[in-house]
Amino acid sequence: MTEHPNSRSEAPRHLVVAGHGMVGHRLVEALRSRDTDGQWNVTVLSEEPRPAYDRVALSSYFDGADEAALRLPDLDDAVDLRLGVTATAIDRAGRTVTTSTGETLGYDALVLATGSYPFVPPLPGHDAEGCFVYRTLEDLDAIRAAAQAAAAGGTGHGVVIGGGLLGLEAANALRLLGLTPHVIEMAPWLMPMQIDEGGGALLGRMISELGVEIHCGTGVGGVEVEDGRAVAVTLADGTRIPTDLVVFSAGVRPRDQLARDAGLAVGERGGVVVDLACRTEDEHIWAVGEVACIEGRVLGLVGPGNAMAEVVADRLLGGEAVFPGADTSTKLKLLGVDVASFGDAKATTPGALEVVLNDPVKGTYSKLVVSDDARTLLGGILVGDTSKYALLRPLIGSELPADPAVLLAPEGAGGEGGGIGVASLPDSAQICSCNAVTKGAICTAIHEGAADVPAIKACTKAGTSCGSCVPALKQLLAASGVAVSKALCEHFDQSRSELFEIVAATRITTFSELVARYGRGRGCDVCKPAVASILASQGNGHILQGEQASLQDTNDRFLANMQRNGTYSVVPRIPGGEITPEKLIVIGEVARDFGLYTKITGGQRIDLFGARLEQLPKIWKRLVDAGFESGHAYGKSLRTVKSCVGSTWCRYGVQDSVGLAVELELRYRGLRSPHKIKAGVSGCARECAEARGKDFGIIATEKGWNLYVGGNGGFTPRHAELLLADADHATLIKVIDRFLMFYIRTADRLQRTAAWIEAMDGGLDHLRSVIVDDSLGICADLEEAMAKHIADYTDEWNGVLQDPEKLARFTSFVNAPETPDPTISFTVEREQPVPTAPRPVALGMPSIGVPAATAPSAPAATPAPSATSVTTR
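Predicted structure:
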């Protein structure tokens, strides 16, 4: 009887893994965790000078992450990891591998995990100085150095050849480095391998609005070189794009030369041919990841690679696992735009139907591909809003629980997935495609004691790669009756309110100190802004001072709201809506001189739109000199205190509502909070200031003031509820102080006051007992905290204008600070400048038919600017 090649022998056998990328790392992790008997000694050859790192998150290297943050968990000490060493030859007969150091290693099993290399088209000038690929940390270091060198006197532009996933990641990197990126894609739209023309058109439009130049449907003629350096890229149509650097992202090719030299079979388009056990034609050699050709395909995603790694680990220990098939679903954020595709996204299945919801106004595109009877989900595409990805992707191949159009309906038009939840999915539904984890496996882990998301990750590996399935994990925890963790994020086990108390008690003043003492890792876009808000609300200096600046989100980072075309809005504070003619004239002059769109807001302020980044300090210098302050329209803080004219002018008014509104707005200005705060003061019961639609609102009575709390407008309007009746002025101010500080201390991240009160045990009655009756004995502390805020307040924009270091942040191009962004353009409507409109989008009513590729042509629809398109093709 022939011995199984992986049957147990007395002495440990030797496994050599050629390659230490993400998939090779996963293979070794899986094998070591299961090899409890010590059947294998493992040697890993790593070409790079560092252990494996998360290549999926490579672009975060330009946004604050360093090598340590990207590194994958260390392999255990029993693994012989050789950095900077490659396999150069395989002797199949002798079962040895020769390394780049000249050493010969014997093996009982060899796994090829050499991955792929970037394809650089052989264009004229492709190898000139200033041409790069986007693959390793060394590549990124070289790109950063070139961009910094160009800042001294370059063009301010960078070209990316290739508009796929990596190409758009590279474009974002150039943008973060201060260059204007140009993306060249031969296909008619971006990401042609993942999304269709409709999704690609929306993605291109949204990315263009962020200042990225898109050139689709054209090839590259060559790279123009002067003195050995790339200076321009010429398109196939003759267009010349001056540039400081060129990044090639035109796809990858399997690194299969080692296998070719050893005589192993390779696929027609490259890749080592393997069977469903991931074994090559040589029973002692396996291949995983991007170097493997399985079922005639080379798969370039980490999910299928991880599945191959799991199969090989099982086989090496005598198991019979087979490759489950490739799930090429993907969900990611590209330059701030959410994109997802799953299953048969292009409707290649015979008879497949497409159900499309295209809303160019909201900037969303959703498509479901269903079977010819519209009962089975085959795939889909989501652009702009991917919130339903975790719900829809596991339904692939399953009978739909609702009408396809209902599943795509926006919130408020059918609920989340038409009332469908993750808990209703069958146990066989795959929740985590990266690691092939089913709902059943997750539920089993929960039943066996995994009580939070980190525990589920540890037990099942779900959520440990791209993280897109984490919302589904939380839903399954909640459905099982397990109390979901209140942890702020994966870096802090504490809730926001707990972190607030920690900062207050320890007097910690920086995020780095807080995460070092009470958290882990380097933080994320959830915890950084939340901690920044906590630090700011406790009087920790200017929000752009030192480390604080890097924690802020887009709006706070530049003390202005970014608009859809990449410009910013300017909103000076107008307390209570009261303004002198002189100040009104200044606002008009500023708007006129800088060419700004001007509008009166619902909060009784004047909003100036269309300011370029480099214009903001000049605009605010004029406003500050005239006595204006920041209106904090960009921050999670007090926005406005709206008022009617009250008893000063109105014959129905019973109290001075304007005076009180001005007092309150100046008292609470700049107060950072979990979410925005709006207030209103009405001078009588006629309620002209709409005070009951505010987070706190005051309505005058004959005896004093009624205080209402917990109201808001927006998507889910709430009427505020009466907290205090007929209060005198001093009592009113004292209770509002307490209310706001109690909210800031105890609310969750991004929780409005209405939701905060609703979630509170005892609701409004409990709130009243705490801040009116002082049942917890904390009112003195709350009042003291508010007094400190009032005493410490300084205007944020005035602080910027006094500090050259802060002022230096406000440039569109680091190498040309005074140069306006050429991608921003305006037209005139109603005598005011407005952003140049994107190209019209065809709109239509719902219909069902065959895929667009086979459908008969139809007349173009007349654009309807405010409509939502719901079409099926």
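Summary: The longest helix spans residues 729-746.
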